[in-house]
Amino acid sequence: METTTDDLWFEDWAGAEAILGGAQAIDDLAFATGAMFRRRGVRDGSQLLRLALSYAATEKSLRTTAAWSGDALGVVLSDPSLIGRLSNCGNFLAALVNQLLSIAAPIGDPPAIWDGPPIRLIDGSMFTRPANRGVGHRLHAAYDPVRGAFTFLDLTLATDGENLTRGDIEAGMIAVGDRNYARTWALRETAEKSAFFCVRSGVSSVRMLDPQTLQKLDAKAVLALLGQQDSVEIPIVLAEAKGVKKPPFHARLIVMRATDAGKARELARIKRSITKEQAKPRADTYALAGVMMIITNLPQEDWPVDRVHRLYRLRWQIELAFKTLKSTFRMRKPPNKTPEMARTWILANLAAALLADRLAAALQGGAPPSVTEEIDRHS
Predict the structure, then answer these.
(1) Which residues pair with 252 in a beta bridge?
(2) Theoretical Cys-Cys bridge with 152: which of 104, 168, 200, 223, CB 3.0 to 4.6 Å?
(3) Antiparallel, parallel or unpaired: β 137-144 and 174-177
(4) Are the CB atoms for 70 and 76 separated by under 8 Å?
């Protein structure tokens, strides 16, 4: 995509203001979130937003942004003053991002290409600090593969881990996540909301028990149940860690034999974990490299093994959406040395992307027509 962010919303700033409820609404939000305390230098929330977008989303340096501010806005700022203003913008920009997501929520009936439960692909993306100085940030997201759009975005420090409860999952929805989301307590909370989960797992990710004997399933037992079959479904109960007074709850464990390419990728992942994280894989980690394990509470009558597998394979869409977002809006690595400035930089880019999407449909590729085909073919 050659069109720059400047072209998409700076040429129609009045249109951008209108999308956000008007200049007065933006100003009110800036004061309500503490981004502005008085009208000194920067006169209103709309000017403050333009400063943040200009600095972050157009790749200007602080000095260039300060100079641009004097010429374009009539606001004369020194570099330290600009840093102070931008460092205090995080909550303001986070509120605007949530507002833009809400505005983008479709009105009326869902697309005709899918009449099943709402699907949310859950994932996170890391933003590291320059030269890995200190803690970075993690962007938690939910993505609707039917509409081809993010439905939830939340930026936290990287120390805040990933789990399904961050995806704004409501009753009746299906939350799909990779192995990082196989956490018993989060799966329980999802089920207690009358929602569904479909997550990849390993034998050590959660405590999986045989429902009759309540003995923990290990790699040997799982592989024995799979035998020579291509796939097998195993009824299980999930138990909390010892000391947590929560009763076990029922789920389905689906085990499928991986392709040669899938096995090679898993072995490569294990090797990377040894090199980068000094991990010490157990023997059963290697034994299970040739299989894929999915845990779900979707009803068996509507979601047989093959259909659950096809549902999980939709995950590539949120990974592609993250890559598109980071490449189109140049969000690879925050250039800032403080957590506050890094947060402003990331959130300003997200706001710019969502504004651009609303103003010019720059990111809209249409709802993927393959969703129903992927999930329902041969089912």
Answers:
(1) 235, 296
(2) 168
(3) unpaired
(4) yes
pLDDT band at 57 (very low <50, low <70, confident <90, very high): confident
Q: Domains along the chain?
A: 5-99+336-360 (no CATH), 100-321+369-376 (3.90.350)
CB 347 within 8 A of CB 94: yes
The SS3 of residue 276 is helix
Q: How far apart are CA 212 and CA 219, in angstroms?
A: 18
DSSP per-residue string spanning 352-376: HHHHHHHHH-SS-----THHHHHHH
pLDDT score of 98: 93
Angle at 69 between CA 64 and CA 71, to 5 degrees: 95
Token readout for 354 is: 């969502």
The amino acid at 232: V
The confidence band for 363, taking pLDDT boundaries of 50, 70 and 90, is very low
The pLDDT value given to residue 315: 93
Residue of 27, 23, 51 lying closest to 39 (CA atoms) = 27
pLDDT at res. 303? 96
